[in-house]
Amino acid sequence: MSDGGYGTIVMEKIIINGAKPLRGTIEVSGAKNAALPILLAALMVDDKCVIENVPCISDVTLSLEILSSMGCRIRMLTKNTVEIDSRFATGGVSPYDLVRRMRGSYYLIGAELGRWGRAYVGLPGGCDIGIRPIDQHIKGFRALGAEISVEGGYVKASADELSGASIYFDNVTVGGTINVMIAATRAKGTTVIENAAREPHIVDLANFLNSCGAKITGAGTDVIKIKGVDKLYGSTYAIIPDMIEAGTYMCAAAATRGRLRVNNVIPKHLESISAKLEEMGVEIIENDDSVEVCGNGELRRVNIKTLPYPGFPTDMNPQIGVLLCLAKGVSCLTESIYDNRFKYVEELKRMGASITVDGSTAIIEGGGMLSAAPVKALDLRAGAAMIIAGLAAKGRTEIEDIHFIERGYDDIVGKLRSVGADIKKVIIPSAVSFEKAN
Ligand code: EPZ
After folding, report:
1. Ligand 1 centre and the CA of 131: distance in Å?
2. Which residue ranges have their beta carbon within 6 Å of ligand 1?
3. Ligand 1 centre from 337 Cα, in Å?
4. For the whole prediction, is pTM greater than 0.90?
5. Is residue 8 predicted with pLDDT exceeding 90?
6. C-alpha angle 254-256-261 in degrees, rounded to nearest 5
7. pLDDT single digits (tens) 214-230
8. What does DSSP say about strands 166-168 and 330-334: parallel, antiparallel, or unpaired?
């Protein structure tokens, strides 16, 4: 909901007339979860960086707004290429109301600590998919010699000098691995992170930092070594394709019994998703930088457990959950990362899904058709799942709260329309309007 000016509240919705098979080619954009740490880590580079293949999503816009408010000079060279000049940036001034809108803003702590030896950043926000503490981030920063406190909604950190250390994460954490890697880039001496997360976006960030003169090895394994350097230099770097966006369109093709070529992917990153779709009876053809998905067969039930990379991604839980509703038989979907990732189930039940959530496992009785209904996007990936459900269901599905979806999907409506989906975004003035106070 937003104020459309002149006192009228407007609401944006996505409207889908479903049960049409998707056919054609979709281009995948740059990875959201690589773009956010790379853009914010550019704050640490006392120079100009040019970042290419940046997705047009609201979390990126928000990140650039935060950097600009800190004195970075931001220039959009193309729709997907941004120049970030951090030479005149100031630490400790990121706007609380912007920072608290997304999870990734906590990378500012590592960047400010790395560059200035102190950080003052509002606690992060992000999708409500469970408790999302930052205790491992704090453990890592303390190991590097920083004093950390959380007060008044802010994380306050300072270190006379960051010194390399050995850090063992109690649980695999993408954000913790990224944040400590960023700060350790400028620490004196060598840092070793053990039990590190192995996601492709961690490798992408390490490659970006190394292109700026950092000395990081082992990214993508569970042991990452960072030799601190005194200075980082500007570079030009292109972000990897978004594996979760790719997986989302692969599920949409299977759900509509369509045939899609998903371009600009790294098939290796999609292995766990492709493997599960093939187990369900979906035909997948892998090419160098694309996958072809043919969903014209009957979908079979499977059991899935989400795991850290290279396991089946938690960020694909809602999307595959829709597919399991369409598969013949009873499937079990177990969520091992978050404790509140099944919120989308209640929305799917409005469309006729038969799902029982028992602790961290959803028991999904598939085989029925989903029926169109008015539903809500409850978080980023749950919203994407509602789109897949609407594409599969006969009739008109309306999706509210689509701002969640726009946080992480670049032009999802346009891309789906280009492959035959009857989908549109509409702006609806609410019935209520009011005189704006002078
Ligand atoms: C990143 O979140 C992604 N977000 C998430 O994607 C993704 O689901 C997640 O990694 C796992 O892959 C961004 O990259 C911006 P974690 P993050 O730290 O870093 C617990 C999406 O849809 N934990 O790996 O917050 C935590 O509570 C979003 O794009 C601690 O206990 O994930 C969770 O249960 C959703 N202490 C688990 O670890 C900590 O200090 C994994 O969290 C940190 C995390």
Report:
1. 10
2. 32-33, 36, 103-104, 127, 129-137, 171, 173-176, 197, 314-315, 337-338, 380-381, 408
3. 8
4. yes
5. no
6. 55
7. 999 999 999 999 999 99
8. unpaired
